Amino acid sequence: MPELAEVAYYCRQWQPSIGEVVRDVRIHPETRVFRAHGSARAAAKAAKELAGRRLQSARTHGKQMLFGFSEGRWLAVHLGMTGELSRVAGAEQVPRKHDHLTLDLEDGTMLVFHDPRQFGALSIEVTGDSGKDPDWWTDLPPGILTSDFTRDRVAEALRRHARSPLKPLLLDQAWFPGIGNWMADELLWRLRLPPPQLAGTLRNAPGSIAAFWRGIRTLCREALEVIGTDWGEPPDRWLFNHRWRDGGHCPRRQCRAALVRADLRGRTTCWCPQCQA
Fold first, then answer.
1. Burial of 82 (0-12, 13-18, 19+ CB in 10 A)
2. Is 167 a catalytic residue?
3. Among residues 63, 73, 167, 243, which one is catalytic?
4. Tell me, what's the pLDDT at 91?
5. With a threshold of 0.85, does the pTM exceed it?
6. Which residues are registered as beta bridge partners of 53?
7. Is residue 63 annotated as a catalytic residue, yes or no?
8. Would you list the domain boundaries of the chain?
9. Weakly modelled stretches of the chain, pLDDT under 70
10. CATH tag, 151-271
11. For a surface tag, which of 80, 93, 246, 260 has the fewest beta carbons within 10 Å of its beta carbon?
12. Which CATH fold topology does 4-138 show?
């Protein structure tokens, strides 16, 4: 599933069209990604709200995206497992089987949401005021790179979920929006923490909460720089490049131990048994 940096990358694909007007909206007649609207027919009716409106903003929050249009029209996007956004010239666009939403713009370009497995989710909302975000957006938890994501908030998460292993807690979007499977593994490897370690144990080690907080923010900044800008390849020194298959080894030169891959509460988890003992 796309995580914080991948979501930021896909959001950037539509950003060059900010200021353009939507000429027409097309929805796949058998789409299932508009679950909030109940049916493709209902979604097509709601989508008419975007026609004739100007794209004014494109934002991300964790794994969520929000595109604002004139007169208080909004398009919410969650990529799910295989969703992606693209921006193409009209002459280059060949409709694909799983193009579930296409916005035809007056300048001739198209904004497309493509999702083969249809685990993504789209919804169209009307507030009537471009300065008023949808209520659900304003209710989202603090973003990791905002000033509201404090050490005290991390400490509160560890306290409330003291008996949870660290890995599944990191995947809780109510506390760590944008963190997914690979980012959680990457963070714990960097901090030399075993994924099954109980969250409450960090509260007993001096400086550990501050290190945990700093580590999360550092990883998010680096992921956005490497992946979120132009889908760059993470450096080989990251766990990222070694965690996806059996037989991988710890990228630390002084270690090189064989990595362990196992299921932890339903999620494939990778760690170094030596560095994260």
1. middle
2. no
3. 63
4. 67
5. yes
6. none
7. yes
8. 4-138, 151-271
9. 91-92
10. 1.10.8.50
11. 246
12. N-terminal domain of MutM-like DNA repair proteins (3.20.190)
